[in-house]
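#struct-queue
[09:14] JT: dropping the first one here, sequence first, then the structure tokens:
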Amino acid sequence: MRQRFLKILLIRLRLIGDVVLTTPIVRALRRAYPEARLTYLVEPQAAPVVEVNPHLDAVIVAPLLAGFARWRADIALGLRLRRERYDMVIDFHGGPRSSWLTLAAGAPVRVGYAVVGRGWMYTQQVARPRGHRERHSVHNQWDLVAAVAPSAAPLTPAADPVEMPEQPAASVQVVARLQQLGFERDAEVIVVHVGAGNDFRRWPEESFAEVVARLSAARPNRRIILTTGAAQAERAETVRRLATALGVGCDALAVACDWSLAEIRSLLGRAALFVGGDSGPAHIAATTGVPMVVLYGPTTAAVWGPWRDPALVTEIVDNGPLPCRPCDQRTCEPGDFRCLRGIGPGAVVSAAERAMDRERSARTLNRTV
């Protein structure tokens, strides 16, 4: 007989993409425990991913502070969680902060990974083998749910894709922004995400610029938007400058570094193509039907690939098998980041055109059926 949980807390801190990849599990938990109150604890940067999730009852945002202010805020948050009297807490993260908050909540059932030095904080520990396994992150996180609901059916990307509902206000804002940029209603908008958190994820600006120039030149109605966070605005401006030098008109190219995450989601939902590396925006793109071209360097699509219906158009580009790939992104053994930087612009352009051709063919087929 399945145990009854009336109040469940889910914790996933840190990165946007990681939070996106938990959304299929949120939906599955709602199916498994329809009467439960589901709450999600997340940090500010990823809060927009889940704040309008239809399967959640509440979202708690853990502030990002430093020093003594961080400790004081976490103690206050821990006391708040304890007052809620959750029946179960599932920690999808396993880091020091999330482990402590799981323990502080005081739930009788606390589920997490068997992490050295912190596993004792959980009442249910799930093995997380060291080293790289060619097993998707969604499946790895599902192991935590299977520990307390072993009869629950395994997840598939077709039945339980990632999700981030579009916010109406963001949709209105995106339409206005596109009009301000002078993009025509029938423009084929291509979103190219040039952001990179570290050297391992940094595809050269020159390569991005060549892709932009070749895609722009192929069709006169194409309009390209370079996206990245505000902290990397200079990188996007460099790509724009290089692409302009290659002949891309100023009216066909724009930079979006100050758009909210909800606006990026809305933009991707109406785009003709997404191009970018393994990143948060790539996983947000997977919550829409946009054709995707995703570049993989130190990571692999088998573990971090877009988790969505296989019928949707997705093209994966990488540099093939390498003895040092995948890696932990701490030290590049060859020293030249060849896993990602060895990908040529031509391979990405070919994948992009192939993706858009596949999408056009699918639409034509649907109209004739």
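[09:21] JT: and here's the second one, same format:
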Amino acid sequence: MISVIIVVYKSKKSLLKKFIKNLNKKNKLIIINNSKNYDFSKIKLPNKTTIIKTNNKGYGSALNLALKRCETKYAIISNIDVSFKKNFFKIFYNLSKKLNDFTVLIPNHKKNKLLNDFIETYDGEAATMMVDVKKISKLKFDENFFLYYEETDLFHRCKLKNFKVYKISDLRVMHKRSSSVEFKDDKNYIMKWHYMWSMFYFYKKNFSFFYALKKTYILILKDAVMLIYYFLIFDKSNFKFRYYRLYGIIFSILGFKSFKRP
């Protein structure tokens, strides 16, 4: 038996229903509900479903809470805006049995098939992943990240601990990024704020402040130039896009905690 963990924040009902349809009856479903007044009444949930209502403290915080409540050895953590083939969860679990020791297994998020069936890797996208609950619970997701780079940071720390992370070449998923929620007004721009804040924080935390500057200064300069350009041509939408990116990374450079909330 395996648990499936998802986090809900104002998620589209159609995507959630589609995701749940692909679950096996044996799967335990843990839903962390970061939304206010989210209505599950019209969604047919599996019998083995646990819903945990929380204040929205971020994706990593939600996953840590779910892992505390997880009673199975392994869990699949997934975004709901991920598409995969029928019986995906069963296939994923069966493939995991081929490895004697792993901490994280990641499906192939790209269209191309890789050379080996299992590739040891500590970077890349992980909109869906299988984790060893006990090992990941020891490491925990860094709750300073509200959005973005939680998995990148986790995999980096796995490498330092010699906790094995593998990608499965022939098990594919497609992630429609940021499609699970319809953002309105400034909320979409706030996502850009978090992406830049988290990027700088990740490099600073795991390497050094000056390394983080080296990795990001070109992006900062580009955003600054484009901000001025869009201001001069009165392009409000693109101006706000560049503004929020700069806003996020500057506050990360200055050492402020992640504070912007949708």
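[09:30] RK: nice, looked through the second one.
[09:31] RK: Strands lie at 3-8, 28-33, 49-53, 74-78, 82-83, 104-108, 118-120, 128-132, 165-172, 174-175.
[09:31] JT: good to know. The domain at 3-175 is CATH 3.90.550.10 (Spore Coat Polysaccharide Biosynthesis Protein SpsA; Chain A).
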